[in-house]
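Discussion board: Methods & Data

I've been asked by a reviewer to show the raw model output for two of the constructs in my manuscript, not just the figures. I'm not sure how much to include, so I'm pasting the format here to get opinions. Each protein appears as its amino acid sequence followed by a line of discrete structure tokens. Is this the kind of thing reviewers expect to see in a supplement, or should I convert it first? Here is construct A:
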Amino acid sequence: MTAFLRLFQPDPGPRLEGRTVFLRLPRLHDYKPWAELRARSAAFLKPWEPTWPEDDLTRPAFRARLNAYARELELGEAFPFFMFRRDDGTLIGGVRLFHIRRGVSQTAVMGYWIGQPHARQGYMQDGVRAAIDFAFGELGLHRLEAACMPENEPSAAVLLKSGFREEGYAPAYLKINGEWRDHRLFGMVAPPAC
């Protein structure tokens, strides 16, 4: 319940700073800019994402999303960040660390999205870098993983420029836009401690 309440506080959770962006946990008042950006970018995003439910952009669905995020935070399983441009605070995308595993593995998976008007301007790489620093720093993780479809060269470029290494190929890895799709697999390990 604590994580759920944090999502409704004026300044919940960590704020990750990049050069051109900052990341923070989503808040209830983010609904309108989030829904507008996702609606405006639907044709751009849908080829790379799981099928959107019919009510995905409604306020009740957003509230349910926040509740799910709160449960994941409470369990330490995920950190869902919204990404904002630093110069004007505009919501431009999101970065999510999820499937966080502790014990002998100390790993997480990273996923991300960016609205079409903000794509290919360096924001995503800056946001990914801030999330990497958080994962290896504050969270103390040892390894991060990510994946993208073979034809998604911009996403692969973000990962490679951010320090990920390509590690393999997984047939029918994730169900994207209603179809099981192959993915390129990427990973990175925390730098050695100084």
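Construct B, same format:
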Amino acid sequence: MHHANHFYGHAHVLARYAGLGDGHPPRINGYVQHGWNIGDGLAPGHPYAEGTPSLLWSEQTRRRAWSVGRRNVTVIGAPFSYLLAMADEPESPQRAGTIWYPFHGWEGQHVEGDHERLIAQIQDTEPGPVTVCLYWHEHRMRRVRRRYENAGFRVICHGYRGHWWTNTDPDFLDRQLTELRQHARVASNRLTSAIFYGIAAGCAPAVYGNPMVLANEDPTFGGTARIRRQWPELHGEQVHLPTAVEIARAELGIDHRYPPAALRELLGWAYLREETT
């Protein structure tokens, strides 16, 4: 299995949905898109065997992959959409405040930007209590975490993404969904997976503030300038919710979600028996 299939517990979520239980997920026959992006669904720089099936989130991503020459592509929807199908909606959710996701770096690239300026803008914009969710990379940096804590924000981390098949947190997305359902708004300084997840989980979205930059950021697909041009409806301190819901549904491929038996067939798991309780 490609190691990126384990990121954020994606393989674990798909295995649960397919009826295979909570154990270690079987090998997936293909590369599962592990985050929303504006390219062909594959992460730049990750090793990829030519001809391996690409299992993508949306029809838009499939068309982009086709345009750059990839042919073995299938739209299955985001793993988060499968989690939504399994996770019961709270009967009377008590939503309050905003969950804010600052743009983050990762093992290979640090993010560069003015956190103090961003904090001031969040304080000026958000009407209720704010939870700042830092990516594990920034959460472990005391100097970054302390800035948000000292501003009076509740600071959390959903967990570790995992890397090279180690330390994957299979409950990452469950933890994220629980937090999203406790907040009225979801916001970030970049349009990212978390914004689409938040919309799908019932939050009103916002994208504002300095987008920051990654060190040596790859501009291949147009970067933040293209994102702002292509999805202007999702940028701003207030966003038209019905439009956002429609876009999120398409970007997460919710209407392309496979039934459990068909998913097992597609991922190469047809030989496995569905777990019974």
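Answer (T.O., handling editor elsewhere):
This is acceptable in a supplement if you add a one-line summary per construct. For B, something like: The beta strands are 31-32, 54-56, 73-75, 98-101, 111-112, 130-133, 154-156, 185-188, 204-207, 213-214.
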